[in-house]
């Protein structure tokens, strides 16, 4: 009968592990602050995400870690803000391949997935990675994920009908022949029939995510879903396009590719269709959790990696044919993707956790991507690594109280270099930080001026100096991301 003791011990351990809540983190790509119904959107249908908000809590002042893809993901998964992150701008690995993958995070980087693995979680990532090719230290499989399927390289993710997707450390060919529409870019005549024999990558990625969920429903799991919609190119399912009014595009006309990416005959309907398709995928994940009886023991987070797509050279359309003004995509906030102004970094954030979070609630707690690492470690009851820059959001989620441990910081090396510090309600912004003529610090009171229309720097020089000092003292030098303006400044 000696076998009874280890059996009982194993059963007790399994029971203890099962009590840990599952974590589902859904990350949209280039979804603007005002592009969901629950955030005031009037034209685009997002019933599943809106329902998620009605069942949980909505953040009104949540911020991404960076205004573009790769550094935002680096901040999210390592818990280090842009002044301390290994990746501070987009950049390819330069391995010579057509889809090279982005510059890899190092083997020494500790990711959220690794921390949760140590706490007994199985981790799966499905969607866009952007933190290093599969044969480098930045591979998701080398950074704490038991399973990865999707786009390792962000450039491959510019097509929803790509030639291949990454399957752990290998690739899966999903589309052998080129898409006929690519040959008609100049004419702007891409048609739905061009894709009839092609595999739509977002659906394929969703299939693998559901399979992971099915296989691991008995274990604590971390399901990371960095979906690719609504990032251009515009490749939405025709069935969704047909649900939106033709009148939207009658006067606007087709997008002919003049601002990059493939053309689209109905760009307004096409863009709305991408977001609605994303919403449908969110609904599918929520239904699968319900099917397995996992709703009560799962915390679900939905947010976006940065603001909506920015303008291009042709003022008629934004990059890829997006018409953000038509949809009021930023809800009146200043700036777009690529900017540290509010429209580029303030993003929707919704959290559902039955029994813990009051349904239909909202919070104005100032928060951002570095906060999720310590929050999930607290929820999982596992040790968080030292040196994280975020604050545990659990009190904001469950008690309605929250106090930041320190201000929020951005040191973005793209678009001529941009810096920002938020110590709510104050926000300091500095543009052209990497040029020979850096801009002066600007100061805004976000409580009174969310649109950042009134620069108060001249009226409050002491506040500007205080926030600049915060920036200087809470950053590290990076050999790959040099910032001469401050790298030589002696910190105090």
In this structure, how is the largest beta sheet organized?
Answer: 10 strands, mixed
Structural class: alpha/beta
CATH architecture of the largest domain: 3-Layer(aba) Sandwich
**Secondary-structure element order, N to C:** HEHEEHHEEEEHEHHHEHHEEEHHEEEEHH
How many E strands? 16
Strand content: 5-15%
**Uncertain regions spanning at least 5 consecutive residues:** 1-17, 180-188
Query: Kindly state the mean pLDDT as a whole number?
Result: 93
- Report helical residue fraction: 25-40%
Shape: globular
Q: Tell me the CATH topology of the largest domain.
A: Alkaline Phosphatase, subunit A
What distance separates the N and C termini? 66 Å
In short, what is this structure?
The protein is an alpha/beta fold. Helix content is 26%, strand content 15%. The termini are far apart.
Describe the model.
The protein is of the alpha/beta class. It folds into 2 domains: 21-398, Alkaline Phosphatase, subunit A, CATH 3.40.720.10; 416-487, Arylsulfatase, C-terminal domain (2-Layer Sandwich), CATH 3.30.1120. The protein is built from 14 helices and 16 strands. The protein has helices at 4-18, 47-54, 69-78, 112-118, 201-215, 238-241, 247-250, 267-291, 324-327, 342-345, 372-380, 394-398, 461-473, 484-487, and strands spanning 22-28, 57-59, 62-63, 122-128, 147-151, 164-167, 170-173, 221-225, 298-304, 349-352, 361-363, 367-368, 408-412, 418-423, 426-430, 442-445. The protein has a 10-stranded mixed beta sheet, sandwiched between helices. Strands 13-14-15-16 form a 4-stranded antiparallel beta sheet, covered by helices on one side. The longest helix has 25 residues, at 267-291. It is globular. It starts with a helix and ends in a 5-residue tail after the last helix.
């Amino acid at each position: 009968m000696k076998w009874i003791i280890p059996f009982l011990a194993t059963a007790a351990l399994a029971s203890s592990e099962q009590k840990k809540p599952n974590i589902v983190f859904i990350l949209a790509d280039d979804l603007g602050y005002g592009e969901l119904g629950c955030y005031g959107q009037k034209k685009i249908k997002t019933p599943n995400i809106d329902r998620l908000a009605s069942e949980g809590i909505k953040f009104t002042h949540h911020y991404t870690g960076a205004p573009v893809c790769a550094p935002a993901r680096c901040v999210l998964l390592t818990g280090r803000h842009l002044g301390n992150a290994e990746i501070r701008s987009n950049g390819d690995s330069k391995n010579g391949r057509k889809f090279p993958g982005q510059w890899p995070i190092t083997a020494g980087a500790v990711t959220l997935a690794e921390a949760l693995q140590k706490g007994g979680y199985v981790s799966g990532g499905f969607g866009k990675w952007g933190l290093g090719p599969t044969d480098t230290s930045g591979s998701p499989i080398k950074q704490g994920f038991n399973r990865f399927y999707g786009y390792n390289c962000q450039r491959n993710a510019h097509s929803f009908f790509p030639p291949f997707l990454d399957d752990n450390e290998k690739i899966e060919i999903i589309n052998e022949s080129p898409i006929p529409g690519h040959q008609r870019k100049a004419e702007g005549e891409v048609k739905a029939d061009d894709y009839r024999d092609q595999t739509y990558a977002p659906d394929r990625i969703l299939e693998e995510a559901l399979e992971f969920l099915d296989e691991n429903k008995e274990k604590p799991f971390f399901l990371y879903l960095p979906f690719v919609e609504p990032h251009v190119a515009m490749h939405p399912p025709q069935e969704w396009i047909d649900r939106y009014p033709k009148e939207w595009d009658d006067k606007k006309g087709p997008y002919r590719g003049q601002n990059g990416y493939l053309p689209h005959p109905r760009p307004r309907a096409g863009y709305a269709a991408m977001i609605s398709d994303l919403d449908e995928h969110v609904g599918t994940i929520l239904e699968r959790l319900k099917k397995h009886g996992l709703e009560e023991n799962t915390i679900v987070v939905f947010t976006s990696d940065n603001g909506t797509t920015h303008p291009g050279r042709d003022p008629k359309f934004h990059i890829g044919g997006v018409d953000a003004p038509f949809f009021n995509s930023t809800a009146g906030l200043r700036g777009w993707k690529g900017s540290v102004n509010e429209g580029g970094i303030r993003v929707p954030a919704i959290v559902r956790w039955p029994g813990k979070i009051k349904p239909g609630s909202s919070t104005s707690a100032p928060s951002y991507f570095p906060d999720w690492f310590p929050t999930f470690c607290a929820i999982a009851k596992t040790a968080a690594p030292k040196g994280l820059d975020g604050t545990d959001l659990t009190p904001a989620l469950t008690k309605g109280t929250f106090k930041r441990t320190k201000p929020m910081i951005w040191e973005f090396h793209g678009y001529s270099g941009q810096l920002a510090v938020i110590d709510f309600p104050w926000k300091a912004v500095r543009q052209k930080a990497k040029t020979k003529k850096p801009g002066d610090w600007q100061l805004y009171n976000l409580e009174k001026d969310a649109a950042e229309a009134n620069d108060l720097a001249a009226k409050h020089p002491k506040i500007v100096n205080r926030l600049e000092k915060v920036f200087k003292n809470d950053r590290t030098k990076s050999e790959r991301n040099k910032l001469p303006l401050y790298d030589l400044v002696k910190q105090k």
